[in-house]
Design a protein that fits this description.
Elements lengths: L1 E3 L7 H10 L4 E5 L12 E4 L15 E5 L5 H10 L4 E5 L14 H16 L2 E7 L10 H6 L2 E4 L5 E2 L4 H13 L7 E4 L5 E2 H12 L4 E4 L2 H8 L5 H14 L9 H6 L6 H8 L5
Parallel strand pairs: 1-2, 1-4, 2-3, 4-5, 5-6, 6-9, 7-11
Antiparallel strand pairs: 8-10
Helix pairs in contact: 1-5, 2-3, 6-10
């Protein structure tokens, strides 16, 4: 039995589908099991990573884990004590190795989970994706209402990765043992700026879109109303750091799955209705 946390998220849903295609028995946790809308063959159980002691781990030996909750070491201990042997953690490419100080709250949270799992003695694989292609949905409402995307750091670079590609690598790590101990940096096949991403959305919609730079401080003021200030600062700080600095594009998706990674254009084509 494989337990999938974050099963209703943008990556987790694809992890569930991929595991079912592999013939695996899947248990998924959700804070709202009745609204999870997962395939009927999935055992959906109420659960929350904020209370790891209550995780439904009976019969579970492998876990797909998202870095949620504030008790990473307790979570790792609970998994190990329950007889779990293997964990695949959705981490982030912001995590730096061989350092005591991570570049921001997001990296620090994920590094804490990585450290806790390593210390637990479990077989672990850490997935470190670059920016998700789905982050572009933050502009959807602006594009629905007009022809201008207003945001900071239009020249921030990333190699946006399709969530299905992250899930495909996760599935291989969950069912194959040869990825134990790996730290896998995952990127899409092409580096581009946020301004470039808006250009690809414009092409898919067949109408011109402009990117208008606005001060980061103005965005921060709005974001802290619904997100912790340290997380907001980490997000904006990451964008600022990548201005003029294209990331290294990796071949991890191809190497692990045996197929080419999906492009940002393909992601946009799939999500075009959400921008109309």
């Amino acid at each position: 039995m494989i337990l999938v946390t974050g099963a209703t998220g943008s990556v987790g849903r694809h992890v569930v589908d991929g595991l079912l295609e592999e013939g695996q028995f899947v248990r998924a946790i959700s804070r709202n099991p009745d609204g999870a809308k997962l395939p009927p063959s999935v055992e959906v159980v109420a659960g929350d990573l904020a209370t790891p002691e209550a995780l439904p781990l009976d019969g579970v030996r492998t876990v797909y884990l998202v870095a949620m909750g504030d008790r990473p070491h307790r979570t790792a201990q609970v998994l190990a004590d329950a007889g779990v042997t293997t964990v695949v953690l959705l981490s982030t490419s912001e995590v730096l190795d061989d350092t005591d100080e991570q570049p921001g709250a997001i990296a620090a949270r994920h590094a804490a989970f990585e450290d806790a799992l390593e210390r637990s003695g479990l077989f672990c694989t850490f997935l470190r994706p670059n920016e998700f292609a789905g982050n572009a949905l933050q502009w959807a409402s602006q594009i629905q209402e007009g022809d201008v995307v207003r945001a900071p750091y239009g020249d921030a670079w990333s190699a946006p990765i399709h969530e299905r590609d992250v899930a495909a690598v996760a599935v291989r790590a969950l069912v194959d043992g040869h990825l134990h101990g790996a730290r896998l940096v995952l990127t899409g096949p092409e580096a581009m700026t946020h301004r470039d991403q808006v250009g690809h959305i414009s092409a898919a919609l067949g109408r011109p879109l402009a990117f208008e730079e606005i001060p980061a401080a103005a965005v921060r003021e709005k974001m802290v109303a619904y997100a912790p200030p340290e997380i907001v600062d980490a997000l904006l700080g990451r964008l600022a750091e990548t201005v003029g600095k294209p990331p290294t594009v990796t071949t991890t998706v191809q190497n692990v799955t045996g197929r080419r990674p999906l492009t940002f254009r393909e992601w946009v084509a799939e999500h075009e209705p959400e921008f109309r």
